[in-house]
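Lab notebook, bench 4. Still working through the backlog of constructs that have no structural model yet. Next entry is a single chain of 174 residues. Request: give me the structure tokens for it.
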Amino acid sequence: DMDRVVEGATVGCFANTGQLCISIERIYVDKSVLDTFVRRFSERVSSLSLGADQAYGPEVGALASAAQLEKVTAHVDDAVAKGATVLAGGKARPELGPYFYEPTVLADVTEDMDLYREETFGPVVAIYPFTNVDDAVDAVNDTEYGLNASVYCGDVRAGRRIGERLMAGTVNIN
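Model written out:
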């Protein structure tokens, strides 16, 4: 169910403003569902409410520090300068407070961009299309990070087989 996948990805990416050790920073999407996922995910991310309220109103808050805002801004600016496409977000929101940055979805991210290999630890996620599961698994495993991974799959058994191949401390299926 695409709604469940989109909502799960949104929470996984932007809970605590993406500042969790298990936050999603890379999403690999099968090309057969890429257009639908990208459209719906980008729409959902664009609709997230930002705010500094301590109540449960805003869905996304501020970053923890000026240094973190600098890093997020540098990663997004570097990616865009090198050809990445911003699908949602992509800019600081100082009118909301000193450390606000919009939840950001990027496409067309390549290996020469800083965020491809470095952890951003903020509200930024890159989408990578794939056609071959083996290639996606290799790409997921090609990192020095690997605390958490998630597999969303219509066939739970197939999802488990993929999950068994991921080099991560925890792998969530659906």
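Notes after review: The longest strand covers residues 124-130. The helical segments are 2-14, 34-46, 66-81, 114-117, 133-141, 156-164. Flag for follow-up if needed.
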